[in-house]
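From the pipeline queue, job 12 of 40. The input is one protein chain; the requested action is below.

Action: predict structure.
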Amino acid sequence: MTKRRAMLFILPNLFTVSSIFCGIYAILMATEGSATDRFYKAAVAIIFAAIFDSADGRVARMTKTQSDFGIQLDSLADAISFGVAPAILIYKWALFQFGIWGMLVAFVYATCGVIRLARFNVLAAQSNGPSKHFLGAPIPLAAASLVSLVLVHYRSGGVILDYQPLMIVVVLLLSFLMVSNVHYRTFKAAKSKQTAFVVIGLAILVLVAALKTGFAVMFMIVVAGMLALGPAEELVRFVRRRLPGSNREDEEEEEEETV
């Protein structure tokens, strides 16, 4: 391997390692008892972890340095930054008030996240190219959903969430979506014009929301919309399959193209 090739190989993995650093930082901030804004800092660190996580794959494809090593490293990084870190954050922020039950809920979230990553690796190894759908909610999206709640609550002046049993329901729902058979679009196999249309539409939505509500609420709206897209499309497919004259073969073929 030439020196230039080695540098190109290291570059995407540096983004992955940066994601791990953000995850560790989030854990340390969430468990720091003296800082009043520790949950906010932890939430922001997880957002940066998601940015680095989305960049490493793109950099690897641009430099043509994709490797099995990078795939496995990325999954291990995701387990820390989007599995363990959000679980600890949400426990220290809200679930600790439920004692052992809150700990178990945080454990369920982290476990479902790791299962989601393991299933992704197996399906990705079996696929022959870019897939149209993820099987189950991606773990970064689940983590972003929890982070958005922390950001919105902090924006309203709160530090530690009051006794809220609804948080248990939210965390368990996200855990279920990660290991479910709900299909989420990857947009990797979309045509360039379709991708551009989606990006422009989302950019306009984000800009309008940011101007009206601020970053925290805007972020929560976007994440909630992305999270709801999967179940909504599943419902549409369910209805279409039961309409007279529906093409079930096309539906089944579409569902098989998953990672």
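Job complete. The chain has a mean pLDDT of 81.
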